[in-house]
Amino acid sequence: MMVRPPQLRNDCFALPSGVDWLPMAEALDRLRQRLGPVVGQEARAVTEAVGAILAAPAVARRGNPPAANSAVDGYGFAGPVPEGPVEFPLVEGRAAAGVPFDGAVQAGRAIRILTGAILPGGVDTVVLQEDVAREGNRIAFTGPLKRGANTREAGEDFRAGDALLPAGHRLLPQDIGLLVAAGLAELPVFRRLRVGVLSNGDEVVPAGARAPEALGPGAIFDANRPMLLALLARWGFDPVDLGCASDDRNDLRARLDAAAEGADAILTSGGVSTGDEDHVSALLREEGELQSWRIAIKPGRPLALGLWRGVPVFGLPGNPVAAFVCALLFARPALELLAGGAWREPQGLDLPAGFEKRKKPGRAEFLRARIGTDGRVERFESEGSGRISGLSWASGLVALDEAERHVRPGDPVRFLPYSAFD
Ligand code: AMP
Ligand code: MG
User: Fold this and answer.
1) Is the predicted pLDDT of residue 289 greater than 90, yes or no?
2) CA nearest 151: which of 107, 182, 121, 117?
3) Pocket residue to mutate for ligand 1, from 224, 225, 255, 272, most atoms within 8 A of Cβ
4) Alpha carbon of 199 to ligand 1 centroid (Å)
5) What pLDDT sits at residue 10?
6) Which atom of ligand 1 is nearest to the CA of 275?
7) Is 225 near ligand 1, meaning CB less than 6 Å away?
8) What is the pLDDT of residues 86-100, one digit of tens each?
9) Maximum CA pair distance of the chain?
């Protein structure tokens, strides 16, 4: 089974004319509406499928539990039992998990039964062994006990034929347990999305390529590429290292061409503004498809969205903080759709601000933040988007929406823990 999905349309990132600034929510909506799976499907053993994205709903082949059984170790009989003391003579034999009692239990009699054992004919109720006095082959206990007490009904969790998980769901460890219980052995999943990461800039030096002492003051280490590669791996994509291009059209073209062969999507960082050395946007505009989305957020703009030889390119800003934040906010949900997954909004929580901030309305802002010992949200001392240390200081982001003008200490703010983007 290998179904090739359609390619993205050339105009998938196009904006209507006259659109200048895009509010964040609208930018996300556009991505959500226009992107879909670009990878084929394959069959995968359930036991190998953690982290994979379902290409079709997972439908139970077997109910859970498959048959009515006992939830405890005790004695089974036909219920209910009225209030007051009762006595039951025991039948010969017992019912255990995997070793059912073959026969029926007559009304007025009880049988020894263990957890997980199928209820024998005539048994619909179980009394806990701790509540019973036993002498020889008689038991006594005190009612009342409802019919069905301490038993599990066949299919009470789910039945054969029930849809358990939808297409687009990314499988977690607990899902593997569920699907195995439901009798599934193989699943249709999407092939893992390969995402290339490319840096660019004459000043940018690959990690470890030179000793720090040997670098001129104008050079900087390529922080973005290993950071983005690590994010992609964490999100369940297949990261592809495309290296670092110089500020040279031919170098960049060659790397993008090579990337388009092996990757399903490309993330670049830097070179997407309109400066003389912003070759990523220039090249995409001239020889590919490019749309510069001016999204009303800080940090972030600009975000370049384009296609190179049919492969979608997300041009992230060069500043590491902006590259990281835009990767979380835009690249992650977009890539999840390309990978066949569902659209996912990060789950935030409202917490009191431990700071004061005045803000220009009209654009959303994302502050590096963490939860203090007093349960309030602290923000990093600086909003400078070159301050990479703030990303590690923080444990998440505070999202201030467009309309916000003034946050006072104690005001509720939306905190998005980094884990909300996993
Ligand atoms: P640019 O958009 O290319 O002008 O880059 C904006 C800022 O981000 C500049 O200060 C760059 O030096 C910096 N920058 C670009 N790429 C990287 C990278 N891969 N790692 C760290 N900083 C970068
Ligand atoms: Mg540059």
Assistant:
1) no
2) 117
3) 224
4) 9
5) 78
6) 4
7) yes
8) 999 999 999 999 999
9) 95
Measured in Å, residue 382 CA sits from the centre of ligand 2 at 23
Range 237-242 contact pairs with CB under 8 angstroms and sequence separation of 24 or more: 237/192, 237/193, 237/194, 237/195, 237/335, 237/339, 238/192, 238/193, 238/194, 238/195, 239/195, 239/197, 240/194, 240/195, 240/196, 240/197, 241/196, 241/197, 242/196, 242/197, 242/198, 242/266
Residue 19 has pLDDT above 80, yes or no: no
Angle at 395 between CA 173 and CA 376, to 5 degrees: 120
Dist CA 203 CA 119 (whole Å): 74
**Residue count (the chain):** 422
Tell me, in angstroms, the distance from the centre of ligand 2 to residue 211's CA: 22
- Mean pLDDT score, 275-297: 88
- Taking the C-alpha atoms of residue 314 and residue 290, their distance in angstroms, rounded to an integer, is 10
**Per-residue pLDDT tens digits for 208-258:** 999 999 999 999 999 999 999 999 999 999 999 999 999 999 999 999 999
CA-based nearest residue to 420, from 381, 356, 355, 366: 366
CATH of 349-421, one of 2.40.170.20, 4.10.280.10, 2.40.340.10, 2.160.10.10: 2.40.340.10
| C-beta atoms surrounding 33 within 10 Å | 11
Q: Is 289 helix (H, G, I), strand (E, B) or coil?
A: strand
Name the nearest CA neighbour of 241 among 198, 212, 271: 198
Which pair of tokens denotes residue 38? 């670009």
Hey, what CATH class is 69-152 in?
A: mainly beta
Q: DSSP letters of 91-128?
A: EEEEEBTTB---SBPPTT-EEEE-TTPBPPBT--EEEE
- Measured distance CA(316)–CA(57) in Å, rounded: 34
Domain regions of the chain by residue span: 21-36+192-338, 44-64+157-190, 69-152, 349-421
For domain 44-64+157-190, give the fold: Molybdopterin biosynthesis moea protein, domain 2 (3.90.105)
- The closest residue, in CA terms, to atom 10 on ligand 1 is 319
Residue 207, number of CB atoms within 10 A of its CB = 11
Q: Contact at 8 Å (CB) between 394 and 369?
A: yes
Termini Cα distance of the chain: 29
* Residue to probe by mutation, ligand 1, list 198, 205, 215, 220, most atoms within 8 Å of CB: 220
The reported pTM is 0.93
The total of other beta-carbon atoms located within 10 Å of residue 375's CB is: 9
Residue 210: Cβ within 10 Å count: 13
pLDDT tens per residue, range 372-383:
999 999 999 999
